[in-house]
Amino acid sequence: MEKQSREGMEEYWHWFCASLFSEPSLEKKLLKRFGTPMAVFHAAEEEIRMVSPRNEKKLSAFCAGRKRWNFSQERERLARLGIRFVSMEQEEYPSRLKGLTDAPCGLFFRGTLPSDDRPAVAIVGARNCSAYGNSVSYWFAKELAGQGVQIISGMARGIDGTSHRGALAAGGETYAVLAGGVDRCYPEENRDIYMEMEKKGGLISESPPGIRPLTFLFPLRNRILSGLADAVLIIEAKEKSGSLITADCALEQGRDVYAVPGPLGEALSEGCHNLIRQGAGLAVSPEKLMEDLMILPGINMKNVQKNKITLERSEYLVYSCLRLQAQNLGEICEATQLSPQDALRILAKLQLKGYAKEVSRNYYAAAKKL
Amino acid sequence: MFSKVWSAGIGGVDAYPVRVEADVSDGLPQFLLVGYLASEVKEAGDRVRTALKNVGCPLPAKRITVNLAPASVRKAGTRFDLAVAAAVLASIQKIPAENLEGLMIAGELSLSGQVLGIPGVLALTEAAGEAGVKRCIVPAVNAREGALIQKTEVIGVSDLAELIELLRHPEKGIPATADTGELLERHASEEKEDFSQIRGQKAIRRAAEIAAAGMHNLLMIGPPGSGKTMIARRIPGILPGMTLEESLKITKIYSVAGLLTPESPLLTRRPFRAPHHTTTAEALAGGGRLPLPGEISLSTGGILFLDELPEFRRSALEILRQPLEEHRICISRTAGTYVFPADFMLVAAMNPCSCGCYPDRNHCSCSPREIARYLGRLSQPLLDRIDLCIQVPKLSYEELQKGKENENSAAIRKRVEEAHRIQKERFGGENACFNSRLGIRDTEYFCRLGIAEKKLLKQAFEKLSLSARAYHRLLRVSRTIADLAGEERVLEEHILEALGYRPLERSEWLRGV
After folding, report:
1. Is A120-292 assigned to CATH 3.40.50.450?
2. Which end of chain A has the lower number of beta carbons within 10 A, N or C?
């Protein structure tokens, strides 16, 4: 069983990470005591248990798992699933994570890992987001990805999913950091981007394949999410939101945190506004954000040229009332003093021209010309 | 001695003649009723015997046999009591048998000899008129209802003694009268619910007007307390007044269902039926061994309002498919197949999600999946039969306080009446045909489009990803909007407005989420 090569060591890492993926602190302690995962593998059970008497139960289960582990079988399993493993000792391991105190010992991934040479921005936000959050996240992701920025997010419903979509629409690269194994598509409704990202980016997780996305894994994955990025952008978060955990991780890791402001009085704006109050950067547009991050725009200037807006007077009247937040027909009628039938007519025209969109039945929002 | 008299049974919403035959002969004293009878009809024997005794006409100790022909049809209900009594009286020669000729009798008896009201008198006198029966004797409480059909004489009796007197001296009978014109007039002025009571909600008022003008089915989506029910209740008031013919047709259904009161024998207000969401498929469609009209039939000519649409049982909702398409419902039972009219306008209301607040994210924390699941309780085929869909927003305090009175129902009704007239002219037929009832081929024929309109539709089709079904519904609604505007042709502006009311498609529902 003695394997001295580097490749051999990688297999020990694989075993180590697959067994302790949810216990980063135990990983640290064991490595500190024994040096390498190989040494851990061959250590006596008593010695291992001594490392953390508090976690004796877990550690004895860990030791029992050692005996069952079959290196070749596990290697084949990974290959069969098309999943790769990279430990922190490898070249390929993202250098952004290397310096972190709580860096994962290894990553399982499909597709590729984010490149170290190009900028990366994480975009996270509320699952149950509003139409406003949706369009803003899409816009930021698309513009940033169009300039070669790698978009990192968590593939959750809402903001996360739309950010991936925006990046994919721009033909950019986007990476999802998952809580469960990378062979698990969660949530199921994002299967389309899950499939797409394998080709245009990657799916990354600390958990070995087959692990379900359990609740306690989400805060752990947030540290990787923020760690892989140069800056974290929060779009729509309630006062108590999971996205704020990501923001905290980012601050601990020394990443820049940016937040997109929302309308006052909306529950979904509160988290972002609090962040801004506490000193987070104010993200007002993708261009400004890139300026702040000192990302030089690529040659892709196609989108920058202004579209000449040709709207009739009445259309302009309605268009000027529309906002990024959805408004219902009654409010629009009130603001424009138009009859509902006229307002509907003009709104239909604006929709056809791409200046407005109906986000829910008879709720309209201004559509950014993307 | 043998004697006979006509009575009538009810099948579906129509009456069919039943011949009640009685014979008195020697033998063991017995009162026999035959002719495929339900138990309440069999019990007529005891009621008749006792009632006759109590009005001083005891039956002789003989064998009395009563047959209800045709004996192959199942007969139910208590309406045969009076006819049985009359036939028996004639066969024991208490009344002259020839006086029963050309007579139809129906009514329930109490033991004291009092005549009780029965359902379906209108259907009965109608059948009598068609069969050439000259005179009908019905319970006094139902006499005015029966007299609405002016083809036959209707006389009401309130007790058995009165009936005996009438049969002995037919010339003494005073036919009941009902002034249909006056009845129709009376109610028009009694309408309490008016559109002017609705504050704000301009968009939904407009949608209701279009729906009424083309008899389109309407779905209102809005948070609780936004006034969906209030609006629905006022829609019958903006539909054109009923003609006598129409009113009689609906009154007949109510008559069979036993829902008429002696004070208002003629239904003059368009029906508004709002069954609770726990209702069963049978209650909606019509049920029972011998089926009675269900809610969908009772809302013929008016509104069937289904509040909290997704909360209805799936089985109950799916039963609406046939009636929404064919405007009638066939119910098959062992006793036969019954056809009930079901020519109603469906108005449905629902919340946008289970908490009711979506898309207001301050109050709604439903996940997209929950919202999708909520909508998923409605089947696509049902949604496909709904032409108009509109969101009813919650009103702010300011809007509630705004003193300005809105347009009243009468003004809206005027426009709707005009649109109905235009449609009637266009479709030529006698029976009311509306834009919403157009088939695919007729839709394309009556909604011919110009070049600009076609271009617009193409654009809309691609940009808004409309389906083929949505396309035809869009045309029909555009046609109605054009009719309201008095336009001969469907123009761009009509289509543009119709786009704002286009019905839900499940995939579309979550586009913005």
Report:
1. yes
2. N
